[in-house]
Amino acid sequence: MRTFIQALSLLLFSTLFFLATYKLPDWLPADIYLRLDPLLGMNAVFAAREMIGRALWSLITLGATLVIGRFFCAYVCPMGVSIDFLDPLFFRKKKRGGMKWDLHFRRVKYYLLVIFIVAALIGLSIAFLMDPMSLLTRFYTFFIYPLAITLINLILDLLRPLFLALGWTNLSYLHYFQSVYYMSAITLFIFGGIIFLNRLVPRFWCRYLCPLGAFLSLLSPLGLFKRRVSKECNECMKCQKNCPMGAIPEDPRATRLSECIQCRNCAKICPQDAITFPASLSIGGEYSKIDFSRRGFLYSLAGGLGIGFIATRTPFTLRQGKHQLIRPPGAIPETEFLRTCIRCGECMKACLTNTLQPCLWESGFSGLWSPKMDLRLAPCDQNCNVCGKVCPTQAIRSVSLEERTYAKVGTAILRKELCLVWAQNKICLICDEICPYNAIVFRPVEGYRRPVVIASKCNGCGFCEQRCPVAGESAIVVVPDGEIRLKEGSYVKEARKLQLEFKPDPGDDKYILEESGFKMEDKKGEEKVSPTEKPQPNKPKGFL
Hints:
This protein has 544 residues and is mainly α. The protein is 42% helix and 6% strand.
């Protein structure tokens, strides 16, 4: 039964992950597993210093743990399920003994929990570094999803001749967009390390490192269902050898209640049927106390404060002002954004064009893994608002398409030294033609047509930057100048207050069609020509 529930949970997690796309309906919470994570919810609430509606879903997990015990780790957590399913695949024939310093290693996850909570209280969100939900979602986003798309396209390519022969036109031309992400190798390395640690003991991650497990273990002894051993026990120790969490000490009749995850493997394997899990209102027990010293707590407290201080004083922080990051439309102001974002990668996976990519050090240590827009790689589709729908903490607000259009992320600027028209006097109309809001137009400058950007019409979509034909860095780039980032309120009202309008206006390019639009004449009706240059009538009008 447990294996079936685990498989069902992992299937649900994977299905919701793959459904987090452009066509995601408003009523489907594709990020439900992230919402149910109490560590992520608590971290976001503490760091943001305000209540977050979607974080309240984690109360379901806390309530169930108070009633049942630490069942989440054994039945629901997709990271735990992945570890259990991959363990026999890689380590079935490996002999694994117990850890020599088992009790000391068990304290590590509590140290990490205190560090994360203290850091969140001073405004630094770092729980995403070790939280299992965030880790697994990033692994799915940066590795599993691109790999799945690659395999699907490969199969389609192999079967394409058959589809053509059968006359199945739709399948003959079917091809899925291949997304790519930075830091995919790092993500694979981290997940592979978590699985490899099982070589030492089963569920090494859950026993010693998982901060979510540490948080739930604080509530676990309060659960109604506890392990009980009857007098029929013959001390064969099979239960101890098969406990994946090492929750059974040398005395098989005792139980470390904080470590027991209600998997009930011991009851299943007991030859005497001496183990049961009846409901009990008793609290505590010989081994239910958390082994966490006062000195360890003080060290963890100092560690959280130290990390928070260093994160705001390191050279990486100074780099924040040197990188003009473009955040997704609907992202709340930067300080609150970094505190609230849990770096799960859900928005990057759901992004229709693959423009959302993870940050490394561009915004300092506090911005590690946070989403940025790489507009040279891909533009932001103007008919998509899915990133806000799948954000479990609303670091990216879920807004309508109209509001999302007016959520200006930046302004395009021309780099004249790279522009083919400005620097090399070549004919190029790409940025003007591709702009959906006609924010780029050609104007007469010293007698010649030159592209210029109308800032009040540009919302930073990045189509011009992505399509610019200049090799390497684009000659037109989007910078965060003029961005609109609101924690609450209407983007439409704010944009209109700033006299911004994001609508096509074809009439602004009329001089491209009219002869007079190519020339600037002085008061005498003579064409202005630079004194150091001579007219060249053999070249196209409007260009040197």
